[in-house]
Amino acid sequence: MIGGLPPSAVDRALTAFLEEDLPEGDLTSRIFFSDPSSNRRAEAVLVAEEPGILAGAPFADRVFALLGGAVSLEWKVPEGGEVEKGMHLGHLCGPLLDLLSGERLCLNLLKHLSAIATTTRRYVEAARANRPPGMRPLRITETRKTLPGLRLFQKYAVRIGGGASHRSSLSSGILIKDNHIVGVGSVTQALSLARERAPHPYRIEIEVDTPEQALEAAAFGAEILLLDNMSVPMMADLVPRLRAIRPEILLEVSGGLTVGKVRELSGLDIDFCSVGALTHSPGDLSLRMDFLG
What we know:
Layout: H1 7-21, H2 27-33, E1 41-48, E2 52-53, H3 57-66, E3 72-75, E4 82-83, E5 88-95, H4 96-128, E6 139-141, H5 151-160, E7 174-176, H6 178-184, H7 187-197, E8 204-208, H8 211-219, E9 224-228, H9 232-245, E10 250-254, H10 259-265, E11 272-274, E12 287-291
Parallel strand pairs: 6-11, 7-8, 8-9, 9-10, 10-11
Antiparallel strand pairs: 1-5, 1-12, 2-4, 3-5
Helix pairs in contact: 1-3, 3-4, 4-5, 4-10, 8-9
């Protein structure tokens, strides 16, 4: 496994990324360093320019392995470790041509995944802020709002930041959304058809926009409710009513969830906050490569 992910899936994606960036090799670097006399060995250091959480190290290792394995990478910070501005994250050593050919993909992945992990950690900490003692943890999950081709890596980075996984694709779970309800006609009808036709042993989740829909779905036996775009006061009133109808129901909240809103929600008896912003958060952890010699 590579970072806990299937090697074949990781290599397939990284190979595609390398082919995008190096369809015929690194033309500029090849001009200067293609022969053995000029392709000298060099050392480089990865430096954090802002504080955050490191994510993506196994994939950076694999990038250089796929380029031939001539570059060695020694990490000074463990995957998932906290970093401070100016901290050396890792040292690289290898031929200049190989270092420069893999530099951009390596940096892009580390920067993007570290930003996701850092943002996730902030949400996870907010979810703990006002949690009453004895109440089960409020978990932070991602969504399918990922960039094409990067979902595997982006969801990985959320887990490094302390978050949990939501469904990985449209094929991996049943989530009845507003357009399904409109198409079928009602919450009750949608749940009835899903229960009748869903493959065993999938649980049925339904997204609801109003307290009335939520109460109807709970009364009809929904296993998971996604409370979408509701205000904190509305949910503070609604959640105890849902628990009274169906104590074991799983409650997920989504829609416009900022760190501050999650902090407010952490006092309510809900189970999940799903946050699309995790995987398209701005990169607040940047990295650079400095050649030492």
